[in-house]
Write a structure and sequence with these properties.
heterodimer; A: 163 residues; alpha/beta; Beta Polymerase, domain 2; four-stranded mixed β-sheet; 3 helices; B: alpha/beta; five-stranded parallel β-sheet; elongated
Chain lengths: 163, 164
C-alpha cells in the first residue's frame, strides 16, 4: 500500500482511522462505525477506485481477546492493493455490510457470519451459507464446543480409547 | 438338484426359485448415482470404460426408487447425513449400502476435529460393505462390489429375510 492512499483516507476520515505504531505496515486499521462511508469512498473516488473486493476474512484472537474482520481490496485500474482491518467487540460483533457496494461481499459476509457470528448490519440476506440453518454456535471461534448430537446423530465418538 | 440333473435336454437348468432369485439379484445390482467428494471421482472411473461396471451388471440410476445399491462415496457432512438417510429410506427393498473410502467408514481425516462430519455413515444407515482407502482405487471398489454380489448370492430371499 502506498502512502498516498493512507494520506487521502486520513484527510477524508480523520476520526475513523486508527493510529498505527509503524506506518510502514501494509494494512490500515479502521473503526467499525464509519466503515460503510469509507468503503463507498474507496470504491467511488477516481484516484482510489477499489473496484474489486478480493476476500473477507474473519479472525478470532482467542477467548479473552477480540474478533477481527479483514478486507482485501484491489483496483483493476490503478493496480494497487489495500488491506483493511476492523477490530470488533467479542460480545456483540457488529460491522456495517458492504454488500451494496461490492456485490461479491454478499456471500463473503454470509460465510464470515456462518463461521464467526459476526453480524453485518444492513446485509439484505444474512443467513448461514454452508452450515444448516438450525446449527447452534459459531464453529471457527476458539471457544466453540462441538455439539454432542445433531438431529439425534451422535457427533463425536469416544476417541480417547482409539488413540 | 441331484436327481433331476442332466435328465433333460440342453438349455434346461434346474434350480430352486430361492437360488434363482438371489442369483438374479446379485448379477444386476443397480447403484444409485450420486457422489459426495473425491471418492466419487474414483467411482466414476470405475464406471467408465477402463473398468466398466456394466460388465458385472451394475449401472447407475438417477433415482433412489430404481436403485438397489447406494455407494456412499465420500465425506458425509451432518447436513448431508440427514439427506443420505432420507435417500436410503426412499430406496425399495432389497437395498444395500457400500461405505466407500475412509470418510464414509469412519470420518477419515475429519474423525477428530471435524465438527461438521458424520463419523461413519453407519451411524445413519446400515452398511453392507466397507471399502478402505483415501480414496480407494477402482480395483478396490470393484473388489468391494464383487464382495457385495457374493453376499447377495448367498442370501435366500424366500426362506430368510434379506440382510439377516
Amino acid at each position: 500500500m502506498s502512502q498516498d492512499i493512507r494520506t487521502i483516507l486520513k484527510k477524508a476520515f480523520p476520526a475513523a482511522i486508527v493510529e498505527q505504531e509503524a506506518e510502514t505496515e501494509d494494512y490500515l486499521e479502521v473503526r467499525p462505525g464509519e466503515w460503510f462511508e469509507i468503503a463507498t469512498f474507496l470504491h467511488d473516488t477516481p484516484e482510489l477506485k477499489f473496484d474489486s473486493l478480493q476476500c473477507i476474512t474473519g479472525v478470532d484472537w482467542g477467548p479473552e481477546a477480540h474478533l477481527e474482520v479483514r478486507y482485501n481490496l484491489h483496483s483493476m485500474e490503478h493496480k494497487h492493493k489495500l488491506e483493511i482491518r476492523i477490530v470488533l467487540d467479542r460480545t456483540a460483533p457488529e460491522v456495517p455490510s458492504v454488500e451494496k457496494i461490492w456485490r461479491v461481499a454478499d456471500w463473503f459476509e454470509r460465510e464470515v457470519y456462518d463461521m464467526y457470528g459476526i453480524v453485518f448490519t444492513g446485509h439484505r440476506n444474512l443467513r448461514r451459507i454452508l452450515l444448516p440453518d438450525d446449527w447452534v454456535g459459531w464453529p471457527l471461534r476458539k471457544d466453540y464446543e462441538t455439539p454432542e448430537t445433531y438431529h439425534g446423530i451422535v457427533v463425536p465418538k469416544i476417541k480417547e480409547e482409539w488413540e | 438338484m441331484g436327481v433331476l440333473e442332466h435328465k433333460f435336454q440342453d438349455n434346461i437348468v434346474v434350480a430352486s426359485v430361492d437360488k434363482l432369485l438371489s442369483w438374479a439379484r446379485s448379477t444386476s445390482p443397480w447403484y444409485f448415482q450420486f457422489g459426495l467428494a473425491c471418492c466419487a471421482i474414483e467411482m466414476m472411473a470405475t464406471a467408465a470404460s477402463r473398468h466398466d461396471l456394466e460388465r458385472i451388471g451394475m449401472m447407475p440410476r438417477s433415482s433412489p426408487r430404481q436403485a438397489d445399491v447406494m455407494i456412499v462415496s465420500g465425506t458425509v457432512t451432518l447436513k448431508m447425513g440427514l439427506r443420505v438417510k432420507r435417500l436410503y429410506e426412499q430406496m425399495a427393498d432389497p437395498k444395500y449400502v457400500i461405505a466407500m473410502g475412509s470418510c464414509a467408514t469412519s470420518g477419515g481425516p475429519y474423525w477428530k476435529y471435524g465438527y461438521h462430519v458424520l463419523k461413519g455413515v453407519d451411524l445413519v444407515v446400515p452398511v453392507d460393505v466397507y471399502i478402505p482407502g483415501c480414496p480407494p482405487r477402482p480395483e478396490a471398489l470393484l473388489d468391494g462390489l464383487l464382495k457385495l454380489q457374493e453376499k447377495i448370492r448367498h442370501e435366500r430371499p424366500l426362506t430368510r429375510k434379506t440382510g439377516t
